[in-house]
């Protein structure tokens, strides 16, 4: 019995050691694959950070350009306004004084309606802008 027990014990020990070796080998493979995935992920994160840094730098540069162009526009517009005012003052002082125009007579225009809204019994409307002339007879003396 002792030999059978020893044989069985040896067999169990070999099986267990084989299983342990397989598990440890598997865990080494798993560990390597995890390390590879982590390395890939680290590369992608680094690339993303570089891209975002570039975008931020580009946006800051564009904002700076806009501020500079606005400042230039303001300076130029002030110069242009001063030049325009000077030109207007020179033009106004060189011209002779002009009399104010007389008040124009208001023109009364009658609204034009369609024949359907007027009714058929009325005479045709005169075109807009034509003033009616009234004849006033004076009594003879």
Could you walk me through the main structural features you see in this protein, from its secondary elements to its overall organization?
With 141 residues, this protein is mainly alpha-helical. The chain has a domain at 2-67. Helix content is 69%, strand content 0%. It contains 2 helices and no strands. The longest helix is centred in the middle third of the chain and has 93 residues, at 2-94. It is rod-shaped, with a radius of gyration of 51 Å. The chain starts with a helix and ends in a 23-residue tail after the last helix. 0% of the residues are buried. The model has no long low-confidence stretch (mean pLDDT 75).
Structural class: mainly alpha
Alpha plus pi helix count: 2
The biggest beta sheet is recorded as: none
Residue stretches low in confidence (pLDDT < 50, at least 5 long) are none
C-alpha-based Rg, rounded: 51 Å
Helix content class: 55-70%
Element-level helix/strand string: HH
Mean pLDDT: 75
